[in-house]
Specification:
CATH class of the largest domain: Alpha Beta
Shape: globular
Structural class: alpha/beta
CATH superfamily of the largest domain: FAD/NAD(P)-binding domain
Number of domains: 3
CATH topology of the largest domain: FAD/NAD(P)-binding domain
Largest sheet: 5 strands, parallel
Length: about 425
């Protein structure tokens, strides 16, 4: 396979990491990133700092335009319409084509949609891109009524931001508590309880319909004094749905609805190109797809091991970054980089959550409690090895846990539980 040129299709963290790593590892040929949004930028701040207005669009960029020029990385503002793996040819929606010795697919994932009446209303929003955040931000204001569907990481972060910006928030989540497979049951209960403790109304149900705004709703008109009542639309904001109906009979008034119920990998381009797909673009441990000229990285990729085992898709930021650096090494025929146990982070209501490793499956859950509340949770396998850890405002604990997991250090569950024992002591 010629590496005179490489085209990376997608400018999220996985695509950017692939391009950056190729240059860092010595690739001197043509290198291009094609993305419908142009300059590659980071996504996690969209539901945190960017949504809150504490980080602007310029600071979302992984690097300024000058960096890409200095490193000889062409950024193409466009959308791929077709891929010919045999020829290494990518065709964009505007009809232009580009050829490459290797193609790296990094299309990411789309937000999962509600399949109920009214879900296609323009006031029903999602949060995957900067444009999505820009559509949501004007709705987050004092007096606005926001319904968030989904209590996972994105839903919880957005609900927290909406509340902090003065909106009235209803959170709809049928699982009580969500995130048990990610942080364990004890921390999951603590994190989910934070919503109600801070004034968010939590509903353990599911939406069944969303009604459109009434033709002449008084709440959508501006009174003569120029002051809009609570729930009224701000200038330039699409009026939101009037009501979200839940399966338990509850009706929630809403100026905007944010849906955060998971993601769907973008595989259409790969399928049309004849690549193997099964809830993701199938790749080997190095990111190679079923065609030797094409690799896939990030949220859209799903690893199939040499024995045929299909792993779950990894949907966290660091996993996407690692998949890009691994693919870059494989493209250059170099040894893959070493990666530690998978790690993630999230923020809500002023607390920081981190997790590492596996917190679901076989093993024993143990919990560290301080001041009467769980601050860290661990999963220990039957052989006394730590497989996972999650913590609230416990970055040092999680970093130490990662060293323990990566080194396979045996642990005593009694010491994990004891708040007087620093985890870094166990990592030595």
């Amino acid at each position: 396979m010629s590496l005179e040129s490489v085209v990376v299709m997608g400018g999220g963290v996985a695509g950017f990491a692939t391009a950056r790593e190729l240059r860092a590892r010595g690739h001197t040929g043509r290198l291009a990133i094609i993305d419908p949004e142009g300059l590659p930028y980071d996504r996690p701040p969209l539901s945190k700092q960017y949504l809150m207005g504490t980080q602007d669009a310029a600071r979302l960029a992984f690097e300024p335009a000058e960096w890409f020029a200095a490193h000889g990385i062409e950024v193409v503002h466009g959308t791929a319409a077709a891929l010919d793996p045999a020829a290494g040819r990518v065709t964009l929606e505007d009809g232009t084509t580009t050829d490459a010795g290797a193609v790296v697919l990094a299309p990411g994932a789309a937000a999962r949609r509600l399949d109920i009446p009214g879900a296609d209303h323009p006031g029903v929003l999602e949060l995957r891109t900067r444009a999505d955040a820009d559509r949501l931000r004007p709705h987050l204001r004092p007096g606005a009524r926001i319904v968030v569907v989904g209590g996972g990481l994105i839903g919880a972060e957005a609900a927290s931001a909406a509340l902090a910006l003065g909106a009235t928030v209803d959170l709809v989540e049928p699982v009580d508590p969500p995130l048990v497979p990610v942080v364990g049951p004890d921390l999951a209960r603590r994190l989910h309880a934070m919503h109600a403790e801070r004034g968010i109304r939590v509903h353990g149900s599911v939406p069944v319909a969303i009604t459109p705004p009434e033709a002449a709703s008084p709440s959508l008109s501006t009174p003569s004094d120029g002051v809009r009542p609570a729930g009224g639309a701000s200038p330039g904001v699409v009026p939101g749905p009037r009501r979200v109906l839940l399966a338990d009979g509850t009706a929630l008034e809403a100026d905007a609805v944010l849906v955060g119920i998971g993601i769907v990998p973008r595989t259409a381009l790969a399928e049309a190109a004849g690549l193997a797909v099964e809830d993701g673009i199938l790749v080997d441990a190095a990111g190679r797809t079923s065609h030797p000229r094409v690799f896939a990285v990030g949220d859209a990729a799903r690893t199939r091991l040499a024995d045929g085992t299909l792993l779950r898709r990894a949907e966290h930021w660091e996993a996407a970054l690692n998949s890009g650096t691994t693919a870059a090494a494989a493209l250059l025929g170099q040894a893959p980089p070493a990666h530690g146990a998978p790690w993630f982070w999230s923020d809500r209501h002023g607390v920081h959550v981190e997790g590492v490793g596996r917190m679901a499956g076989a093993g024993t859950h143990v919990v560290r409690v301080e001041g009467g509340v769980p601050v860290a949770a661990f999963l220990v396998d039957d052989g006394g090895r730590l497989t996972g850890c999650a913590a609230v405002d416990g970055g040092l604990t999680v970093r130490a846990a990662r060293r323990i997991i990566d080194r396979g250090i045996p642990v005593d569950p009694a010491q994990l539980v004891d708040p007087s024992v620093p985890l870094k002591k166990l990592a030595r």
